[in-house]
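Q: Could you fold this chain for me?
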Amino acid sequence: MQQPPTRRSIHEPHTAPVTTGPAFFNGSSAIWRVVVAVAITYVAMLTMLRISGKRTLAQTNVFDFVFIITLGSMAANTILSGSIAIAEGLVAIAALIGLQFVASWLTTRSRSAEQVINAEPVLLLRHGHFLQQAMRHARVTGEEIRAAVRREGLSTLDDVEAVVLETDGSFSVTRRSPGQPPSSMRDLAEYREPRDE
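A: Sure. Below is the predicted structure, expressed as structure tokens.
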């Protein structure tokens, strides 16, 4: 005689069956997909970056940094994610490289676009004197500036014409050249303003 089904108490927690996929090996087909995706993505990225030019790989500002991080993430998803077709991943990578190419082209054609994309260098020290307001705005300390000066082999700030925080976060130190105007500072509006001592 068939036993009637046992009724579950409303107070008894319901536990759904737990299914787990393989943690180490997911079959040879998945391995071969990764191998093929790596080869195709690698060749395609080399080709696209080669066509777009050297400026695409110039890591000089925040925009370029975001480009490199996003490009790596897209490549990883294209290679490892089985839910993303290789063609779809390559289209996304091509679109990102195209956007970077357009941005680089705009910076060489438009001063306004260059200021928006690359920002502007910041003058931190002039004629041996700290520009305190610029330092506070850029969150740079005097010790960081002195360290940059020491790396250039200079012993005193009096030997320094200017220290500039470049768009890539590095410091540029210019030595004083008596009798010669610093033509490399023409793009710095602050250089023509009175000193902030």
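A (continued): The radius of gyration is 29 Å.
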